[in-house]
Amino acid sequence: MNDFLTAFNKYSEVSGRSRRREYWMYTLVATVIAVVLDFFDRAFDLKLGHGEAAVGMVGSIFSLITLIPTVTLGIRRLHDTGRSGWWVFIVLIPVAGWIAYFIFSITDSQPGANTWGPNPKGNAPVQSGTWG
Predict the structure, then answer these.
(1) Would you write out the chain's pLDDT as a tens digit for each of its 132 residues?
(2) 102 lies in a domain?
(3) Following DSSP, what letter does each residue of 67-110 receive, concatenated?
(4) 12 belongs to a structural domain
(5) Structural domains of the chain, count
C-alpha cells in the first residue's frame, strides 16, 4: 500500500527512477481496487451508458483519479531501465506495444546511475534473479 501512496505523492514527478517493486505493487493495489469498484458498480447498478458500452461510474472516477499517477510512475519505471519516458506511448500500438511495454516494465534496473538519477536500489551490487 505504501508504494501505491508513493505514486500519488509523486504524481507530478516525471524525473527520477522507480523500482520494479514500486511499479508492480502500485499495479496490484490499483487492480484490486478497480475490481472491488467494479463489483460495487454492478451491485448498485451504477452505469454510464447503455448495453455493452456501459461502464461503471465509480470505476470510471477511480480511473480518472489514477490516470496521471499511473502514467508518471510508468515514465519513472522506464527511466529505471535506461529508456526515455517517451517510450510510454508504445502502448498506443495494439498488442505489440503492450507486449513491449510489459517487457520494459519487468526488466531489471539499469545498474548504477543513469541520465535520470541514481539507482533506487542504492549502492548495493545488483544480483541476478532478485525482485526489486
Answers:
(1) 888 999 999 999 999 999 999 999 999 999 999 999 999 999 999 998 888 888 999 999 999 999 999 999 999 999 999 999 999 999 999 999 999 999 999 999 999 999 999 998 875 555 555 555
(2) yes
(3) HHHHHHHHHHHHHHTT--GGGGGGGGSTTHHHHHHHHHHHSPPP
(4) yes
(5) 1
